[in-house]
Backbone:
């Protein structure tokens, strides 16, 4: 077995972040770290959005992230701490779209250990030094500088270790340009030791790091923030502890201007404002500071554990120091913040725990004096300050005032939500589902508490319909959009071609209306229309070419073909026109800009076969299948005209290229034979211009422009195939052929420019977009229904839109996922702004839709219910309107130490996470969770309905008034709706929660297939207190541990109605302890209870026990995977996987259908066949075949176990001596007679929560060419991790594929060095040795190597560069797209 690992969606859980100017001076940019991935964003203040620039996989765990700027420079660098044991200094390079490693200094062993200094990082604000610390003992300091060539240098580490000391936090102290100093929160090992605030000083002269001074602080102190010092502020730190915020400073300036230890350390403390009715003990979990150096002002923004933002202000004077500390309740967000950054343009970036990340704009930072939730501490007289240095408490010189309590704001008041970044973390469960269109989507349970949601993730680009469809009355043959002149940003006209006429629509500010004085010929079918030259228009129709000079109707001129020829095809760009005549001749035109004329330059006779020039061809063009097709590329940057165009005859499969020489003559170049009759052609240059500034200058001459051409020919065939080839712009040589089958319908291709970027729109059975991402072309389907013709359309409301035609209606669409990388507004105006489409933070193009949940969605169960389909007919038009398909999922929602603020019946689910002041819901509508005592739960089971609508857009919604869907909507966007809920929390005293669930259509084993009902079995836990729960209330903790509150369990059975999907309670069965694993097994349910496996059958009043295997595992059953109807793989919390086989009773059973009736209703036994020999902390299991299982553990490993081949075909002799007949194992042992063989193992970097089978490429079986083949040949293992990543482990079916992938990985390990210096093989083998898995993520890094290295790597493999790249792309497209 050989597997190929690919990451479909990179980690989305933001763990660390920092801001700075990384790619160019004065840019506002943000770097976020998600597990092992670095993401770089650029803030666009005018558009109020974060533009993703690029990301990089470091192949290691990122533990800390910060920035520094050397004195005298204008760009920031990145300091990175990882589990590689190295301190890494990086620089962002926009030209290569990656991070360049400048230094990689080792400091310790790999991995995250208590004594390895990889947990804390503090960078001196002047960029002169940084300090790294471990949890215990070790501290290192590095001096940062630059050499004579302006390169960053780093010194050898200076140590200041201290044994038997635990470090809680570190931060740099702002002391101006004095010796750098750092502060740390430490506590000694002794039982009576106090937590200390310790200052460390780096003496740049003596090159030593010393422990300077210390002072005691509160034991609950945890977060420290640096206070500006030197000439900008008083210096010191802001110390956050439970219920209090304290300003501390241990330094003062003596008469000589030197910093010395204060005789009486400065301390100013005030109480933290707290929310009403909340338990005492509020903690600050994160904070940030904004410093305006020009205005010499600063403030702090803190976030509590409940998601409340608190603003902190320090009042200070140069003579007297700090005089007051003011805290004010600012705003509230749904979840506590992991980190935050404030940009100088007035934006706040928030990364929330268990929710999306948000970009907010400050409306104001001034909190009114009379607003609630304020706390002020003032020094009555600075000269009278008297502090007890031992206790650290001030006496009578500080006055504290304020209104400490506040109510949570129902809406944002001082902040405005402007953008968000999708996050799937924590991703707790997922399942694949087949949509009615045939493609596969992913349903995920993501988020935490009020940030929880159920999301549908499907491959594709999101599309929005901007307005109601516009009916044109007749079938549309083609559409074109024209600007008023070359300088216009938006289109002014829409030209719609019909069979024998043309309509021109003028685009206004609020409406689109038909115009008759456009100058276009309206009584002919338009073959081509465009704005050409500076402000002229061209229209090509059957009888001629019409040129409207400068847009003036009276200056319109026409060119007529020689009689009796007619024009059969045409194409044009902004300066050239090519037409094909019915005689087979090609006529080439150019625009004379000086005289504003369209001139005939060249005519080539006999280029194509004649199409009946003596016939009267005044009928529609669609009725003649032999019409040729033409395509000419847009004019590349810096050129006056395009040099190549393509011609194809629909009567054959030949495509020929012609070159336009300097004198205007046409020369035939290469010839390509298509696999089928050519339907359409497109020729475009996907190249773009990169613009960037030099590192030390902002002058125009410092701007660098890099042009990267990629001329590509795209061929659409009549039988549903699309072929693309790379074209040499000089010789016309075609290479790098890529063929893709897109369905049975003919493929129509068209070049459009979206956001100024050349993009190819592919229209077949479904619409697709082909665009460039980095150095490769990406093709992604659009999440909308198929349309026949389309053109790019730009307006003020939709700058990156499309105008699409279906039958007789026009639809205005907007691409909502397409984003552009734009350079800074401060670039010289002569430099063009580059626009390059890039994916969102989710990596590849995936479209999301979701429904909110009340609490944390912990489990997702597919309910095996019959689909409900509904069809409508339109007899007048002969079309089917819609078929609606329903899929049901059960979602378990549970939160510990929480209580709901409102009754269940009043919940409103589909609301925004951060409500706006005008449109957002109030707190009572959202149902925010409120903290409660340990042992109390808010839990429920929700049934979620996934619906899909396929419709004919030409039909009107009024034809079906009782239907809830709008039939005029072109979009085929799958949605999720909450259908029904099962409320399980009856009262707070019962302390109940749902742990897991399973669905079965054969439970009970009676009735025919038509009468079989679907049952839902829920595992309920009562009085459950999770281990490791933080108990800050002594009385409650004692009560929670009382013997009479021992956790117990129950199994509740619900019957799901076939039509309404309404759950009906059947009965409840009490079990002795909670069950964490359920699975439908034959016509029974397998339940893991502690160490045992128990089989239950459906009874009238309760579940009936049909068998039990005691001591099936050593610790606790955590997962069950059923294979083949009579085998089950059982996972233990620590002791890996055990394989069991069910043997029916000795009497002959009544049925043999495992899926429906069951073999034997009386008796049976479970037999332990084999188990694993290694310890694995199993989290999830999925059966691959009858003898193979794939599992994951809590340390981020995925493994595949298989029963050895020589044992798989054995019968009863396989059981050996370990047979069990409704009892315990021999001697209480859980070990089988045989061992499972390890087939594959890989480490993916984060805890894998869920496993399932499927693929994510968004293609149907027909498009993949797998229709009618075995299902196993279409499926890969799709995994989801806690940090929001989604990936696949795909089988390498042939030896050639496996050997190719192995060779590429081998060469990449030799030539590619990870950015943090971590060995790739060591990373993938972090816990267990890597086996039989090829890392596709590493193989795809081949594009990141220098071109010379790429050539050497491909030469070692024995293939050309294009062939290697093609095969790597095909592996990704097969499983991810």
Residues:
């Amino acid at each position: 077995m050989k597997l190929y690992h690919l990451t479909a969606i990179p980690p989305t859980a933001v763990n660390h972040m920092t801001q700075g100017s990384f790619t160019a001076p004065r840019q506002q940019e943000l770097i976020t770290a998600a597990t092992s991935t670095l993401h770089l964003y650029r803030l666009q203040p005018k558009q109020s959005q974060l533009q993703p620039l690029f990301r990089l996989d470091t192949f290691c765990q990122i533990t800390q992230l910060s920035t520094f700027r050397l004195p005298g420079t204008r760009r920031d660098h990145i300091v990175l701490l990882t589990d590689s044991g190295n301190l890494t200094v990086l620089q962002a390079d926009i030209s290569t779209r990656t991070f360049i490693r400048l230094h990689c200094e080792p400091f310790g062993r790999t991995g995250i250990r208590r004594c390895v200094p990889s947990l804390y990082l503090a960078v001196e604000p002047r960029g002169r030094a940084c300090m790294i610390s471990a949890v215990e003992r070790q501290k290192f300091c590095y001096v940062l500088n630059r050499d004579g060539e302006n390169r960053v240098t780093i010194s050898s580490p200076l140590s200041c270790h201290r044994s038997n000391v635990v470090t809680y936090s570190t931060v740099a102290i702002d002391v101006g340009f004095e010796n750098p100093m750092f502060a740390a929160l430490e506590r000694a090992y002794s039982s009576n030791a106090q937590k200390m605030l310790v200052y460390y000083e780096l003496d740049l002269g003596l090159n030593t790091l010393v422990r300077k001074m210390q002072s005691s602080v509160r034991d609950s102190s945890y977060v420290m923030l640096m206070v500006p010092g030197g000439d900008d502020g008083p210096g010191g730190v802001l110390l956050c502890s439970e219920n209090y915020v304290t300003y501390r400073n241990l330094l003062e300036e003596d008469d000589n201007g030197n910093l010395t230890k204060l005789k009486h350390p400065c301390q100013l403390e005030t109480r933290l404002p707290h929310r009403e009715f909340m338990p005492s003990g509020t903690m600050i979990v994160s904070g940030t500071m904004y410093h305006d150096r020009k205005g010499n002002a600063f403030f702090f923004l803190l976030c509590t554990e409940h998601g409340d933002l608190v603003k902190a202000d320090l009042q200070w004077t140069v003579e007297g120091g700090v005089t007051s500390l003011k805290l004010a309740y600012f705003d509230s967000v749904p979840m506590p913040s992991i980190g935050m950054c404030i940009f100088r343009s007035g934006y706040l970036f928030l990364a929330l725990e268990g929710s999306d990340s948000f970009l907010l704009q400050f409306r104001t930072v001034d909190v009114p004096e009379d607003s609630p939730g304020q706390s002020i501490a003032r020094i009555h007289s600075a000269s009278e300050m008297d502090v007890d240095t031992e206790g650290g408490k001030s006496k009578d010189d500080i006055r504290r005032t304020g209104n400490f309590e506040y109510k949570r704001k129902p809406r944002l008041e001082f902040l405005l939500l402007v953008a968000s970044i999708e996050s799937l973390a924590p991703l707790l469960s997922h399942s694949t589902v087949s949509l009615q269109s045939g493609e596969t989507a992913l349903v995920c349970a993501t988020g935490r508490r009020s940030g929880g949601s159920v999301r549908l993730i499907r491959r594709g680009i999101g599309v929005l319909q901007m307005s109601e469809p516009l009916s044109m009355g007749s079938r549309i043959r083609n559409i074109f959009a024209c600007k008023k002149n070359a300088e216009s940003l938006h289109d002014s006209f829409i030209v719609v071609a019909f069979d024998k006429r043309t309509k021109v629509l003028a685009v206004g500010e609020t409406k689109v209306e038909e115009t008759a004085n456009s100058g276009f010929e309206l009584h002919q079918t338009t073959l081509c229309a465009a704005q050409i030259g500076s402000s002229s228009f061209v229209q090509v129709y059957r009888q001629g070419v019409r040129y409207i000079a400068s847009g003036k109707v009276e200056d319109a001129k026409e060119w007529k073909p020689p009689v009796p020829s007619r024009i059969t095809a045409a194409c044009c760009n902004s300066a050239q026109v090519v037409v094909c005549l019915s005689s087979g001749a090609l006529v080439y035109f150019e625009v004379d800009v000086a005289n504003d004329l369209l001139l005939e330059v060249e005519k080539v006779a006999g280029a194509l076969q004649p199409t009946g020039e003596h016939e009267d061809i005044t009928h529609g063009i669609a009725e003649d299948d032999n019409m040729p097709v033409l395509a000419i590329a847009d004019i590349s940057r810096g050129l006056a005209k395009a040099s190549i165009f393509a011609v194809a005859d629909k009567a054959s499969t030949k495509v020929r290229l012609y070159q336009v020489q300097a004198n205007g003559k046409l020369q035939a170049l290469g010839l390509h034979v298509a696999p089928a009759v050519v339907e359409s052609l497109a020729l475009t240059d996907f190249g773009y211009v990169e613009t960037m500034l030099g590192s030390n200058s902002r002058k125009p001459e410092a701007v660098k422009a890099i042009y990267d051409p990629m001329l590509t020919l795209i061929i659409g065939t009549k039988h549903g195939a699309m072929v693309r080839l790379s074209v040499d712009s000089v010789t016309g040589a075609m290479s790098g052929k890529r063929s893709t089958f897109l369905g049975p319908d003919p493929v129509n291709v068209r070049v459009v420019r979206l956001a100024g970027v050349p993009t190819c729109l592919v229209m077949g059975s479904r619409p697709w977009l082909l665009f460039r991402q980095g150095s490769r072309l990406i093709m992604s389907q659009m999440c909308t229904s198929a349309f026949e013709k389309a053109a790019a359309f730009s307006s003020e409301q939709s700058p990156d839109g499309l105008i699409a035609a279906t039958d007789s209606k026009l639809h205005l669409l907007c691409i909502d996922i397409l984003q552009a990388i734009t350079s800074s507004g401060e670039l010289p105006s002569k430099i063009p702004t580059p626009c390059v489409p890039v994916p969102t933070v989710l990596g590849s193009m995936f479209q999301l839709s979701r429904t909110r949940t009340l609490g944390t969605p912990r489990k997702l169960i597919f309910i095996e219910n019959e689909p409900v389909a509904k069809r409508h007919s339109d007899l007048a038009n002969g079309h089917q309107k819609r078929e609606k398909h329903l899929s049901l999922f059960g979602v378990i929602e549970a939160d510990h130490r929480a209580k709901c603020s409102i009754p269940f019946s009043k919940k409103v689910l589909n609301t925004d996470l951060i409500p706006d002041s005008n449109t957002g819901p109030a707190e009572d509508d959202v149902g925010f969770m409120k903290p409660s005592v340990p042992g109390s739960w808010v839990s429920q089971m929700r049934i979620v309905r996934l619906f899909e609508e396929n419709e004919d857009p030409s039909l009107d919604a009024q034809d079906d008034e009782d239907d809830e869907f709008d039939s005029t909507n072109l979009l085929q966007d799958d949605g999720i709706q909450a259908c029904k809920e099962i409320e399980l929390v009856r009262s707070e005293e019962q302390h109940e929660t749902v742990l897991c669930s399973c669905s079965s259509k054969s439970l009970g084993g009676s009735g025919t297939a038509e009468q079989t009902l679907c049952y839902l079995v829920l595992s309920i836990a009562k009085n459950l207190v999770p281990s490791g729960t933080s108990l800050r209330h002594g009385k409650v903790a004692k009560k929670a541990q009382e013997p009479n509150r021992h956790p117990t369990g129950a199994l509740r059975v619900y019957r799901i109605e076939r039509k309404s999907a309404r759950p009906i309670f059947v009965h409840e069965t009490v079990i002795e302890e909670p069950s964490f694993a359920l699975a439908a097994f034959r016509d029974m349910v397998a339940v893991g209870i502690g160490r045992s496996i128990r089989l239950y059958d459906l009874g009238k009043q309760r579940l009936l026990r049909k068998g039990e295997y005691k001591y099936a595992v050593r610790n606790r059953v955590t997962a069950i995977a059923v294979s083949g109807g009579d085998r089950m793989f059982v996972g233990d919390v620590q002791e890996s996987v055990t394989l069991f086989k069910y043997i029916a009773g000795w009497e002959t059973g009544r049925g043999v259908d495992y899926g429906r009736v069951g073999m034997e209703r009386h008796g049976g036994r479970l037999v332990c066949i084999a188990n694993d020999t290694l310890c694995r902390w199993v989290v999830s299991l999925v059966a691959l075949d009858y003898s193979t299982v794939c599992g994951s553990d809590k340390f981020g490993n995925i493994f595949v176990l298989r029963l050895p081949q020589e044992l798989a075909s054995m019968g009863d002799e396989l059981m050996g001596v370990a047979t069990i007949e409704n009892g315990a194992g021999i001697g209480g042992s859980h070990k089988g007679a045989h061992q499972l063989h390890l087939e594959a193992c890989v480490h993916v970097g984060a805890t894998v929560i869920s496993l399932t089978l499927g693929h994510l490429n968004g293609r149907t079986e027909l498009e993949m060419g797998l229709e009618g083949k075995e299902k196993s040949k279409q499926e890969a293992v799709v995994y989801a991790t806690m940090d929001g990543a989604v990936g696949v482990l795909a089988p390498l079916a042939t030896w050639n594929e496996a050997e190719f992938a192995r060779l590429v990985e081998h060469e990449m390990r030799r030539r590619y060095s990870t950015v943090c210096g971590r060995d790739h093989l060591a990373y993938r083998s972090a816990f267990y040795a890597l086996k039989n898995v090829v890392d596709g993520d590493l193989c795809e890094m081949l594009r990141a190597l220098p071109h010379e290295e790429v050539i050497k790597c491909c030469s070692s493999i024995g293939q050309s560069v294009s062939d290697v790249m093609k095969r790597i792309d095909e592996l990704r497209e097969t499983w991810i797209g």
